[in-house]
Amino acid sequence: MRIVKIIGAGALLIALGSGSAFAAGGGDSGGATNTSTQCKNGKVYSEQMKKCVDAEESMLDDDALYEAGRAFAQAGRYGEAITVLSTIAANGDPRVLNYLGFSHRKQGRIAVGLGYYEEALRINPDFTLAREYMGEAYLQLGDVGSARNQLREIADRCGTACDEYLELERQIDDHMREI
Questions:
Q1: What average pLDDT does the segment 116-133 reach?
Q2: Within its chain, how far is the Cα of 109 from the centroid?
């Protein structure tokens, strides 16, 4: 049974096109995946079975399920991302908590999203992608001061040239032009 799970997970990772960018916890591979283009209703693509299956019954490891959930979130399929990521949220992976926060926030549940970002940052205070998304959530609430606090936290951790800093800085600048 364990070997089937490992083979299935490896096949899904290949199908999703995961790369080293994911090791940092949130890079974007830039393309659609079998999960995001073929599967519906929160199902994930199993390369081994050559079909979409329920996440809970997929025998895929947490990393493969994270990649599938992330693919749904990046494709704008937030409800399906929540379905997949919720199957592994209890394991306390800050990447999973971050994308649960992202998906809830994008569906308009900003307070729920903030709760997930806070939990991710309790586990890993240096997780700059969660800080960026948290800053964006604060902007949605009109709390520019808290967004700027997250920008400073990001600068302290990765400088002012990292992607997370540049993106949140751009979001703050855009927000300030709109008000």
A1: 99
A2: 15
DSSP 133: H
Q: Mean pLDDT of all residues in the chain?
A: 83
DSSP string, 60-125: --HHHHHHHHHHHHHTT-HHHHHHHHHTTGGG--HHHHHHHHHHHHHTT-HHHHHHHHHHHHHH-T
pTM: 0.78
Strand partners, 44: 53
Q: Are the C-beta atoms of 42 and 80 separated by less than 8 Å?
A: yes
* SS3 of residue 43 by DSSP: strand
- Domains of the chain (ranges plus CATH)? 1-87 (no CATH), 94-179 (1.25.40.10)
Angstrom distance (rounded) from CA 62 to CA 40: 20
**CA 104-141-129 angle, 5° bins:** 55
